[in-house]
Structures are given as structure tokens and as C-alpha cells.
């Protein structure tokens, strides 16, 4: 039976320049400290580099493709996901829009999407109600963008340092009473239907592939259901899960932060898939 590896992308395997958590490349390394790792750009948009991983992580991920079924599991829309050029062959499956879309050979599975949207219609307040609340309560002074993703959820790009104290907590309570969850990741604040999870989509891929072992990794509260769906999981030393001390049986909290955490996760995946750890 195959090994399935499902991983969040942003701030888990791939990192923006702001999230690398490395010293400035112009700064001299302290004595006896290794120099900064070499980076590989894995995403460009309109010609500009956006996301990176270490070259070592890229080699590990490429090696993983020969050992396991690798499934990216992201909150990105399919369009945003397809901008990422991961090392190795293109994954046969990918989870996008936090589980709202299941891509099979790069094409959204229409039956899966219908199942998901049918469940959301029954179990959650309408998207329009949530969007209206955000438009009314989020101050343009600290909101830079307001987006609806795939008619499934809403996210804001915010100036995090200007967020009023207690606003996210109040929004979390309001959304929770309507079946929605809130996640603040860097400068993005997501408001997502509770039943819309990466974990549900990963379970479906595990069923389709007959996986005997499922591995996973993630850094945010939107990855908690993913980590609960796997047999063994890892979370980096940064992100919402680390900040809140979230843990679960079989989930290892790593000390590494930033892009070096991504390298450690890729190594853990490969060793576990090969049965060497």
C-alpha cells in the first residue's frame, strides 16, 4: 500500500522572502555558524519571485516523489496553486481552497466540489452574510485587500500592527456562532466555513489511493484538521499552531522556524516514507 504525504505549502514547505527567517544575505555569519542556505525560487507572479525553499529541501521533495504519493494541501485557489513550480513530477492530486477543490492531474474534481458546497449550504451561514459583516466591521484604515475565494470563503490582507486589540477575538466568536472559523496568517486573515477542511479532502485522496500510511505537515489553525487526519505529522516552530501550543497525538512540534523548518519537514517526510524513521 502506498505512503501518502499531504502538506500545507505557504510557511510550511515554501516561504515568501518576508517569512524566510534568515539573516540578511549581506551580513557576515557569526563565527563557527553555517552560512545561510542556498534558496530556490519556486513561484513567480508577473515576473516577480514570490516563494522559495532551500535547494536541499527541493532535492528531498524530488526524492520523495519516488517513494510516496505527494499531495499539496493549500488554502490557495487552484489558480494561485498552479503558479507554484514544485520540484519533481507534477502531483497527481492537490487539495486547494482549503479542501473546496480536489485537483486530479491539475483539473478540479466537479463531484467533490458539489459534495463540499452541498454540505456548506446546510451547515453554515451564507457567505454573503459573512462578507457583509467584514465589509461593515473591518476598517479600511488597516485593510489593504478584501477577497472572496472561489465563492467558498473570504480573506483580508491587513496591516497587522494596526489591527485593533480584541477585533480578531470578537470576529472569531461571531463567526463561530455561524459555523465559520477565523485564521490570521501573517498579513492574511481568513474567514472559512468550519466544514471546509483540508483533512476531509486528504481522507478522500487516501481512500482513492489505498494509502497504508498518511503523513502530513502544517503551521496554521486551518491545518489542524489536516494533522488530525494523518498517521504522523509535523508542525514548524512558527505559525498559529506553535503560537497557541496546539498539539495532537502523533504530531511532532519542530524547533526550526522559517525556511529551515521547511527543509526539516521535507527530510522528515522522506525518512518516514522510506521507513528509516
Explain what you see.
This protein is an alpha/beta fold. Helices cover 31% and strands 25% of the residues. The protein contains 9 helices and 14 strands. It has helices at residues 55-64, 78-81, 110-123, 127-137, 167-176, 198-209, 224-228, 240-244, 259-274, and strands at residues 3-7, 39-45, 48-54, 69-72, 93-96, 101-104, 107-108, 143-149, 153-158, 180-185, 188-193, 213-217, 232-235, 251-253. The strands form 4 sheets. The protein has a 5-stranded parallel β-sheet with strand order 4-1-12-13-14, with helices on both faces. A 4-stranded antiparallel β-sheet has the order 8-9-11-10. A 3-stranded antiparallel β-sheet has the order 5-6-7, covered by helices on one side. Helix 1 (55-64) packs parallel to helix 9. The radius of gyration is 19 Å and the shape is globular. The two termini are 18 Å apart. The model has no long low-confidence stretch (mean pLDDT 95). It comes from Streptomyces thermoalcalitolerans. InterPro entries: HAD-like_sf, HAD_sf. This is HAD family hydrolase.
Shape: globular
Poorly predicted regions: none
Instruction: Please identify the oligomeric state.
Output: single chain
What kind of sheet is the major sheet? Answer: 5 strands, parallel
Summarize the structure.
With 277 residues, the chain is α/β, with parallel strands linked by helices. The chain contains nine helices and 14 strands. The radius of gyration is 19 Å and the shape is globular.
Amino acid at each position: 500500500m502506498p505512503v501518502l504525504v499531504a502538506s500545507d505549502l505557504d510557511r510550511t514547505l515554501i516561504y515568501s522572502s518576508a517569512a524566510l527567517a534568515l539573516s540578511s544575505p549581506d551580513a557576515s555569519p557569526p563565527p563557527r555558524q553555517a552560512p545561510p542556505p542556498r534558496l530556490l525560487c519556486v513561484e513567480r507572479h508577473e515576473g516577480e519571485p514570490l516563494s522559495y525553499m532551500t535547494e536541499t529541501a527541493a532535492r528531498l521533495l524530488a526524492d520523495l516523489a519516488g517513494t510516496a504519493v505527494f499531495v499539496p494541501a493549500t488554502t490557495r485557489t487552484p489558480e494561485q496553486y498552479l503558479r507554484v513550480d514544485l520540484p519533481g513530477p507534477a502531483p497527481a492530486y492537490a487539495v486547494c481552497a482549503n479542501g473546496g477543490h480536489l485537483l486530479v492531474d491539475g483539473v478540479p474534481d466537479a463531484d467533490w466540489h458539489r459534495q463540499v458546497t452541498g454540505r456548506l449550504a446546510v451547515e453554515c451561514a451564507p457567505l454573503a452574510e459573512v462578507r457583509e459583516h467584514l465589509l461593515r466591521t473591518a476598517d479600511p484604515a488597516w485593510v489593504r485587500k478584501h477577497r472572496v475565494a472561489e465563492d467558498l470563503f473570504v480573506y483580508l490582507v491587513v496591516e497587522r500592527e494596526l489591527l485593533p486589540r480584541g477585533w480578531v477575538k470578537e470576529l472569531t466568536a461571531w463567526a463561530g456562532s455561524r459555523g465559520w472559523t477565523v485564521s490570521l496568517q501573517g498579513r492574511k486573515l481568513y474567514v472559512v466555513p468550519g466544514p471546509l477542511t483540508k483533512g476531509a479532502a486528504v481522507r478522500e485522496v487516501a481512500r482513492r489511493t489505498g494509502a497504508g500510511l498518511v503523513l502530513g505537515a502544517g503551521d496554521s489553525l486551518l491545518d489542524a484538521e489536516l494533522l488530525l487526519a494523518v498517521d504522523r505529522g509535523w508542525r514548524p516552530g512558527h505559525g498559529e499552531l506553535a503560537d497557541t501550543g496546539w498539539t495532537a497525538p502523533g504530531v511532532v512540534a519542530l524547533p526550526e522556524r522559517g525556511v529551515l523548518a521547511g527543509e526539516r519537514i521535507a527530510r522528515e517526510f522522506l525518512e518516514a516514507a522510506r521507513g528509516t524513521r
